[in-house]
Structures are given as structure tokens and as C-alpha cells.
Amino acid sequence: MDFLNAIVLLTNYIIVPALTYGSQLALGAIGVTLIYGVLRFANFAYGDLMAFATMVVILTTWYLQSLGITFGLLPTAILALPVGILATIILSLFFDKTVFKYYRDKKSEPVILIVVSIGVMFILNAIVRIIIGPGDVIFMDGARFIMKAGEFKKMTGLNEGIALKSTQVITFITTIVTCSILFYFLNKTKTGKSMRAYSNNEDLALLSGIDPTKIIIYTWVIVSILATIAGSLYGLDKSFKPLSYWNNLLPIFAATIVGGIGNPLGAFYGGFVIAFTEIGLTYAYKKFLVYLLPEQLEPSSLVQYISTDYKFAISFAILVVVLIYRPNGIFKGKVI
């Protein structure tokens, strides 16, 4: 019985939150890796692009709710996703045409595009803060829990319970479905194969008759869809605060590097690696060990490797280690 309690404890506080957080990071990391693979620069504005997309979803959600339109047990934000996606696509294409295209045509070095993306990041951050404000916004409605800890305890007779929020299930399922469609698109469709060819060898792709303008547009469209879904899922699960999306840029980049930058599948797995590492190292294992160890060996301290205050330092440390010892990531990088 104690062993089961220990497993349920880890499931509730590590496995379920890490799967949810990892799903959000995975979607973000795939967006970053697609931009790097096709457009060949690290887009530091991606976190604030997610914030902008989520802001549009929130505003649309409020509008729908004011009309009395909801989605029953599911969050109304799901109905607002298409509007957020459309607005984000328009914004991304606008910045590409007015900013990034100029430096791309000049064959500028990637570091220049990185600096430019930082400028775009500040602009997006300012827009979001001016429109919706810098504070927390909770826009979750519908059923909040699929299962509560008390219900699980009553059902199983265990001391520990599992609380399963609807946003956690929605996040995981949406991520799996979205990534499955994306990977099918990249590997099985003509357009997806063209994107991969352009990423692998731009000159050869151009000789083969691939239109780079269309490839760039397709990339921004896919990236915008991923940014909207990832940002909205994160906002529903936690809450919306513009600064939190900027903070998430580090673990997203860490996931991208760990999986192999330019490799969407690697970015997907990298998101879960970062999530499980962050949550696993910041969890206090005292209660878990109390269930497993004899009374005389029970720990007196929290048995917490790293304080939650240093959660993002874990991502930074992983990023540095991977860049030093395996710069191509777990999977081969620079491949779409």
C-alpha cells in the first residue's frame, strides 16, 4: 500500500505536471526549430509571439462570453483559437515582409537576424502590455477538474490522490494531435517535403524549382499556428501574464537545443526532457521516501535538489552542457 501511495504521489506531483508542461514546451520548441531550419536564425521574439497570440484568444473569448457563447464543459478559448491563429499569421507575415525579408535579401549574418528578432520581441511585448496589461489574467472556464484528489482517494482507498485538471488533458491530447498532423505534413506531403529540401540545401532546392517565397510563407503559417496553440494552452493551464512567456523562452530554446536544433521531432522530445528535469529536480521527495523507507531511515529534510526559485537555472545548465558536449543535440540537428 505504501508503494502504491508513493507511485500516486509521484504521478500527481511530477508525471502529470511534467507531461502538461512538456507538451507546451514541445509545441514552442518545434516552432523555434522550424524557423531556424528554414529561415536560418534563432527567433528571440517567439515567446512574445505566443503572448500576442494568447492575448487575441483571450480578447475573443471575452467577446464570445459577452454574447453568451460558451463551449460547455470545455474552455471557450478553444472556440477563439481560429481567430488567434489568423491574427498571429497576419502579424508574422507582416513582420517578415517589413523586417526580416530586408535582412534576408541582403544575405545578412544570422547574428544580425537574432538582434533584429530581439527588437521585434520588445515591440510585441509592448503591444501586449499596452492592450491587455502586465498582470495575471485567468480565462479558463468550463469544467476545471476531470478528477479530484478526494475522489481518487475515496475510489482507491489510498492516502494519496490524483487531481486531474481538464486543461492538463486538453493540453496533452491537443499536443499529440497537432504534432501528429505536423509530422505527417512534413514527411508525406509535397509541400512538407519541399520545406525539408529547402532546409537541407537551399541552392539545390532552388535548382529543383522550389519557390522560396511560398516555403517562407508556409513556415510562418505553421509557426503561427504552433505559437497560438502553445501559448493558449499554457495560459489556460497556468494563467496569462506577458512576462511569463518571455521567461519561457529559455526552456523552449533549451528544448530545441537538446533535441537538435532544426529537428522538429527532436524538439518534441526535448520539451519533455526539459519539463521532467525541471520538475523532477525541484520536487521535495521527503514524503515519497517516507512511504518507501523504514522509519529509522526516514529523511528529516525536504530532500529537494534545487529550490523552485532556480527552476529556470536548470534549463540554462542543460543548455550549456548540451552545447559543450553534444552541440547537435540528442537527435541530429539541422534536419526538418
Features:
ABC transporter involved in vitamin B12 uptake, BtuC; mainly alpha; 14 helices; single chain; 336 residues; 2 strands; two-stranded antiparallel ribbon
Give a quick account of the main beta sheet: strands, pairing sense, barrel closure: 2 strands, antiparallel
Q: What string gives the helices and strands in order?
A: HHHHEHEHHHHHHHHH
In CATH terms, what is the architecture? Orthogonal Bundle
Would you tell me which CATH topology applies?
A: ABC transporter involved in vitamin B12 uptake, BtuC
Shape: globular
The total strand number stands at: 2
Just give the CATH class. Mainly Alpha
Mean pLDDT: 91
Structural class: mainly alpha
How much of the sequence is in beta strands?
A: under 5%
Helical content stands at: over 70%
Estimate nothing, just give the exact number of structural domains: 1
Poorly predicted regions? none
Question: How is the largest sheet built, in terms of strand order?
Answer: 1-2
Quote the distance from N terminus to C terminus: 47 Å
* Tally of individual helices: 14
